[in-house]
Amino acid sequence: MTTQTATETAFAKINLALHVRSRRADGYHLIESLFAFVDDGDRVEAAPASELSLRLTGPFAGELDGGGDNLVLRAARAMQAHFGVGKGAAILLDKRLPVAAGLGGGSADAAAAARALNRLWCLDADEAALTAAIGALGADVPACLTSRTLIGRGIGDEMAPHAGAAALTGRPVLLVNPRIACPTGPVYRQWDGVDRGPLGEDAANWRNDLEPGALALVPPIAAVLEALRGMAGAEMVRMSGSGATCFALFGDAAARDGAERAIARAHPGWWAMTGALR
């Protein structure tokens, strides 16, 4: 029996650490990253239909192409091919996260679409099967299917559990973006080629090696970091991924919410989202 509609959240991904170790001959970079996911993000809804279609809504819908190259539609076609599905789906993507923002948005949307279609089409596929179906769409896709704190190595697609994941679950977090797109490729090309060491257990040594390059390309990121570091109760402040979104972890929700209000007053043009780590 076909489910009437299936709705999934495309959880925002942040990098608590992103250590770039080397650059491969093919241009890809080998990294060690601590992925974490916020309990909010875009929304994907799938309803029965004879053909595949995609409709975009939300504050950032205008920055996306809803055509055949959209990762949501590519994920849907990959699901059809992998599982031999002849049905279609009317898919709605409510785009609430900024685009090219260092939040894994496209990969998270693809993963959410796969989870929704898995339910809509009653496939009963486990996470490994979904990864086999759509994992090739992007290095972040396997992590986004899991949407839990984990370590990513290789080009980000080799996942391992993180011993401290349970302690991070539920931590209040504030995301802030200056509403400037920061495409991944140019930021990675700014990396200076220096291996500054592996990802260890000590959070004091975690870093984002892409931050200097992103700051060179999008200087307003510095103002976001400065604003977050000035907030009472901010315990970890860092740029996420290749930017331009930055985040702060807090010890309690009241401090996080106070920081969000202060950011909104001081910088009304910036985008902000509150949440907690999954």
TrEMBL record:
Keywords assigned by UniProt, alphabetized: ATP-binding, Isoprene biosynthesis, Kinase, Nucleotide-binding, Transferase
Residues binding ATP, per UniProt: P98, V99, A100, A101, G102, L103, G104, G105, G106, S107, A108
GO biological process: isopentenyl diphosphate biosynthetic process, methylerythritol 4-phosphate pathway; terpenoid biosynthetic process
Matches recorded under InterPro entries: GHMP_kinase_C_dom, GHMP_kinase_C_sf, GHMP_kinase_N_dom, IspE, Ribosomal_Su5_D2-typ_SF, Ribsml_uS5_D2-typ_fold_subgr
A Pfam family recorded for this sequence: GHMP_kinases_C
Record-annotated active site: K13, D140
GO MF, one annotated term: 4-(cytidine 5'-diphospho)-2-C-methyl-D-erythritol kinase activity
Domain of life: Bacteria
Domain GHMP kinase N-terminal: 70-146
Pathway where this protein functions: Isoprenoid biosynthesis; isopentenyl diphosphate biosynthesis via DXP pathway; isopentenyl diphosphate from 1-deoxy-D-xylulose 5-phosphate: step 3/6
Record's keyword annotation contains ATP-binding: yes
Catalytic function, reaction form: 4-CDP-2-C-methyl-D-erythritol + ATP = 4-CDP-2-C-methyl-D-erythritol 2-phosphate + ADP + H(+)
Domain GHMP kinase C-terminal span(s) in chain numbering: 198-265
Enzyme Commission identifier(s): 2.7.1.148
Entry keyword annotation includes ATP-binding: yes
Functional description taken from the UniProt entry: Catalyzes the phosphorylation of the position 2 hydroxy group of 4-diphosphocytidyl-2C-methyl-D-erythritol.
NCBIfam families: ispE, PRK14608.1
Stated family: Belongs to the GHMP kinase family. IspE subfamily.
Protein name according to UniProt: 4-diphosphocytidyl-2-C-methyl-D-erythritol kinase
Species the sequence originates in: Sphingobium jiangsuense
The organism's taxonomic lineage, starting at the top: Bacteria, Pseudomonadati, Pseudomonadota, Alphaproteobacteria, Sphingomonadales
